[in-house]
Amino acid sequence: AQTVTQSQPEMSVQEAETVTLSCTYDTSESNYYLFWYKQPPSRQMILVIRQEAYKQQNATENRFSVNFQKAAKSFSLKISDSQLGDTAMYFCAFIYYGQNFVFGPGTRLSVLP
Amino acid sequence: KAGVTQTPRYLIKTRGQQVTLSCSPISGHRSVSWYQQTPGQGLQFLFEYFSETQRNKGNFPGRFSGRQFSNSRSEMNVSTLELGDSALYLCASSLYSGQGNEQFFGPGTRLTVL
Lengths: 113, 114
Fold this sequence. Notes:
The structure holds two protein chains of two kinds.
Chain A: E1 3-5, E2 10-14, E3 19-21, E4 24-26, E5 32-39, E6 46-52, E7 60-61, E8 64-69, E9 74-79, E10 88-96, E11 102-103, E12 107-112
Parallel strand pairs in A: 2-12
Antiparallel strand pairs in A: 1-4, 3-9, 5-6, 5-10, 7-8, 8-9, 10-11, 10-12
Chain B: E1 5-7, E2 10-13, E3 19-24, E4 31-38, E5 42-50, E6 53-57, E7 64-68, E8 74-78, E9 87-94, E10 104-105, E11 109-113
Parallel strand pairs in B: 2-11
Antiparallel strand pairs in B: 1-3, 3-8, 4-5, 4-9, 5-6, 7-8, 9-10, 9-11
């Protein structure tokens, strides 16, 4: 069974600083997809960033970037220039062909003014 | 395009009752997945439907069931409710099933079982 681990239940960061959220996963598959989703308080879950395992280049989306280490099965999310609106639960997720998404337990990030 | 909608948004039921939750996916999306979200267990996969067929099923008892209609709308039913079924139930839609497409989530239905 595929598993996703997020070892940091809670984190905080000062506004305008950089923070990195960790994610590791366990799979024997070679072709798969990894995601970071964000769930703000009382709001809908939205996609932050997506990475295809066969692509070596790390995905980036504005202030959000990932460090994808396939051999280590690690997929961390870096948020630069943190903003108050980044306060949310962040979920790491994994999927491979034909199967359902598997989500990690989440990291609660608080951005402090 | 309108996003994923879920109805009702809030629901209060008592033990032993049954409940039906509804999800309307984004237009054109054929895959609908359901998740149970609780503080202790996080996001747990319930099942996925694609083109009216259940494609995957999570590790939940048979009291949890679902279906998908020809217009891709999906319903989830929970029979004989238990206190532990209190949770946020999230629906997510995507274009296809299991191909790494982004899932778009609805706002959820918060179910409270008394």
